[in-house]
Amino acid sequence: MTRSKTGNMKSMLPMNPALNILAVSGSLRKGSSTTLLLQALQHLAPENLQLEIWENLDTLPHFNPDLDREGEMNVQAVQDWREKVQKADGVLICTPEYAAGLPGSFKNALDWLVGSGDMADKPVAAVAASPYPTSAEHAHTSLMLTLGMLEARVPAENQLKIGLLSKKLNAQAEITDPELNTELQRVLSALQQTILQAQPV
Ligand SMILES: Cc1cc2nc3c(=O)[nH]c(=O)nc-3n(C[C@H](O)[C@H](O)[C@H](O)COP(=O)(O)O)c2cc1C
C-alpha cells in the first residue's frame, strides 16, 4: 500500500460505496401515512444507506401472465419496475393493510416479479403498519408469504409490524415514539447486515 505524505494509511483506503435501497410504499394515497413512514426512514438512515422512494406503483398494468411470456415482455412500466428491483442492493417495503390483506395494487406489483426472478435472494426489509392497534398482522402475513414465494431474503430482524402509526409519526415525517424510533433503526441496520452478508467477499 502507498503511504500518503502524512503517513496516514487510512486515508488511502477506498471508501465503501453507499448502498442503494429501493423504498416501496404499498399505498397509492397522496397523503399516505406509509409513504410518510418511508420519508421518516430516509431521515433515520445512516449516510451509507441511500433510500430512493419508488413512486410508480400506479403505472403498472394488472398482472396478466399472457403479457409475461419469456422474451416477450414489452410493457415499459413493468420493465422499469423490474430493473429498479434488480439494480437495488436492497428493498425496503412499508405497506398498510386493506380488507385484512395487502393492498391489491401493491400485491399486483409483487406478482410482476414472480416470473422475472428479480427478488430472488434480494435483501428485503418488510414493514407493515396500521393506524389501529392490530399492527397490520394480516398484511404482514400475506407479505411474508409472497416474499417467501419470491425467494427474497427477509430474516426476522428485518421485519416489523406497527400499530397505532398515526400516534407515532407526525406530518413532518418525524417519529415521535422513541420505541418505534429504536425499532426502525434496528430494521435499517438489519437490512444493511443482510446486504453485506449477501455480497461476495
Ligand atoms: C376500505 C378500507 C379497508 C381497510 N382495511 C383495513 C384492515 O383490514 N386493517 C387495518 O389495519 N386497516 C385497514 N384500513 C385502514 C388503512 O390501512 C389506513 O387507512 C391506512 O392509513 C392506509 O394507509 P396509507 O395511509 O398509507 O394510505 C382500511 C381502510 C379502508 C379505506
Account of the 3D structure:
The chain has 201 residues and is of the alpha/beta class. The chain has one domain: 3-Layer(aba) Sandwich (Rossmann fold), CATH 3.40.50. The chain is built from five helices and five strands. The chain is globular. The structure holds flavin mononucleotide. The site of flavin mononucleotide (FMN) has 15 residues, from helix 1.
Q: Tell me the span between the first and last alpha carbons.
A: 20 Å
Structural class: alpha/beta
What is the name of the CATH superfamily?
Flavodoxin domain
Helical stretch count? Answer: 5
Low-confidence stretches: 1-11
Ions, cofactors and other ligands present here are: flavin mononucleotide
Helix content: 25-40%
- Tell me the strand percentage band: 5-15%
CATH topology: Rossmann fold
Tell me the CATH architecture. 3-Layer(aba) Sandwich
Shape call? globular
Give the neighbour order of strands across the main sheet: 2-1-3-4-5
Task: Count the E strands.
Answer: 5
Mean pLDDT: 92
Largest sheet: 5 strands, parallel
H/E element string?
Answer: EHEHEHEHEH
Number of domains: 1
